[in-house]
Hints:
Layout: E1 13-18, H1 23-27, H2 29-37, E2 41-48, H3 63-77, E3 82-88, H4 97-110, E4 114-118, H5 132-145, H6 156-160, E5 170-174, E6 183-186, H7 191-199, H8 208-225, E7 234-241
Parallel strand pairs: 1-2, 1-4, 2-3, 4-5
Antiparallel strand pairs: 5-7, 6-7
Helix pairs in contact: 3-7, 4-5
Pfam families: PIG-L (PF02585)
Keywords: Hydrolase, Zinc
Protein name: PIG-L deacetylase family protein
Amino acid sequence: MSAFDPASPLVRRVLCFAAHPDDLDFGASGTVAAWTAAGVDVQYCIMTDGDAGGFDPGHREEIVAMRHEEQRQAARIVGVEHVHFLGERDGYLEPSHDVQRKVVALVRRLRPDVVLAMHPERDWDRLQRSHPDHLACGEAVTRAVYPAVENPYAYPELAAEGLAAYKLEWLLLYGGPAGRENVRVDVTDVFGQKLQALRQHLTQHPDVEKMEAFVRANAGRKAADGGLAAGRLAEAFHAVAVNAADTIAGF
């Protein structure tokens, strides 16, 4: 089985899933910026509206609209023009068949080379990475990409709508246990874009300076763990081959 190469010219379209607005900007926006700079078509799908987020009680009536716009602005900074919102309730996301069906429909419609999603495994070293919605996002996407996306008899109404079954090659997971990480992407040259994207989520950051220091330190640790040169910054992922050359077909 070949290793995943994020810089491969075979990566032409990527569909990225997150539980909340800002999750992708913490976990993967540097990699996304590198992809879009290389001409890769990257699209986002945000599963919940982030309606339980924020710190200002005065924002309750408009928090959904605010967070949608924050995510759109952040996405544009890293070269992403299309942001899909599933509209699930923040804090209530489950890997239900309704959610899985929506994921299958979007993956079959866009037919990406890579699907990127949050990790379905809990990280006991930093529990904040494992918000229940994060785990549900990862579980729903993982269940969707295998077997439902490639099974023509799963959600048959989708095939009737013209969304034919599709074999995805790679699933890339972020925000999981460090022991699962098997791919690191050097994002040093686009790290400024990553921070700028994160700054768009003003409803979520009561202390922007502290947030940026944390993100930089984490990226430095990921780079060091991956053997990159001192001073480099990295994002880390768990790459899973869904359909590789040696994969046995079957549902």
